[in-house]
Write a structure and sequence with these properties.
It is built from 10 helices and no strands. By secondary structure, it is mainly α. The protein folds into 2 domains: about 80 residues, no CATH class; about 80 residues, no CATH class.
């Protein structure tokens, strides 16, 4: 596998499950139904361009021009899917761990959408909080903080109670992303 810059590897790791799911669904039509739910949720949460290109890939398109017009994150995901279809050895491993602070902008956007009353965002945030709480440790504490954050409670001292360095880092990254998004 070609050596990819660290940022691209972080993107690949963060989206390894989706990349692997799309490649598997391309190879086995029976795996498309579970993928469809993931794609529906992704589209509802602002990933429409990515979902559109994935649908083209599922329909059999493999041309490099599918990457045109995509931002860095979407382009890296699509490139990883296309490379994985040609050579499975290039696929990220399901166990790859991403830097959780890279999730901060996405969490912030869903938190803000929840505050605007968007039902899909509320449902997605609830599922994410549940998954994080199942993970235990700092992720469980961060999952518990999503509700207060979605209600506009930004008191870092209260939110970070019981968190270790990783949890505090993610919380601060989410608070920073929220502040940045609210200024726009």
């Amino acid at each position: 596998m070609p050596v990819l810059p660290e940022r691209r590897e972080q993107i690949r790791s963060a989206h390894a499950a989706l990349i692997l799911q799309v490649v598997a669904a391309c190879q086995n039509v029976h795996l498309r139904a579970p993928l469809e739910e993931s794609l529906r949720v992704a589209a509802a949460n602002g990933w429409g361009d990515l979902v559109g290109v994935i649908r083209h890939i599922l329909a059999g398109q493999r041309e490099p021009d599918l990457l045109q017009g995509l931002d860095e994150e979407d382009g890296t995901i699509i490139e990883s899917i296309l490379m994985g279809l040609q050579n499975p050895e290039t696929l990220p491993k399901a166990s790859d761990q991403a830097d959780p602070t890279l999730a901060a902008p996405g969490l912030a956007s869903v938190i803000l959408a929840t505050r605007r009353g968007e039902p899909e965002a509320l449902a997605w945030l609830g599922r994410m909080a549940t998954q994080m709480q199942r993970a235990g440790g700092d992720m469980a504490r961060m999952g518990a903080a999503l509700g207060p954050l979605s209600r506009g409670h930004y008191d870092r001292r209260k939110l970070e109670r019981g968190m270790g360095p990783l949890g505090r880092s993610l919380l601060q990254a989410v608070l920073d992303a929220l502040a940045k998004a609210e200024q726009q």
